[in-house]
Amino acid sequence: MALKGSCHCKATQFEVSEAPSGVTRCTCSFCAKHGGLWAYYKPADFRLATAPDRVSTYQWGSYTIRHHYCAICGCYTFGESPDWSTGQPDFDNPKIGVNARLFDDFDLDAVPVTVIDGKNLW
């Protein structure tokens, strides 16, 4: 069943194909500053439901990941990246990391949280 989400001001809205069975907390400097909990999807399972001009993008370091946030209220909403499950970027298998804290009508406390040591991995 599809799940909707949005930033604080609702200018950026999105939808995913299903609720996550778990989320990830990354300890890298970027994620730690944002405090997001990430649910990962294939690009086909994510839909931006608002105009793209409501979304701003931040990239740094290797410019491998596109971090998106609401251009109005500043909430970090989702990111686009290659799959990193092997420790190296797999550009043939992109994924969308959605900030699960922004899901509407979803009990985030009901799913397990996996910690990724991004502080020391990259």
From TrEMBL:
Q: Which GO terms describe its molecular function?
A: carbon-sulfur lyase activity; metal ion binding
Which SUPFAM superfamilies would you find in this protein's record? Mss4-like
Its keywords, alphabetically, are: Metal-binding, Zinc
The keyword Transferase is assigned to this record: no
* The UniProt record lists the keyword Zinc: yes
- Per UniProt, residues of the CENP-V/GFA domain are 3-122
> InterPro entries from the entry?
CENP-V-like, CENP-V/GFA, Mss4-like_sf
What family, per the record? Belongs to the Gfa family.
Name of this chain's protein = GFA family protein
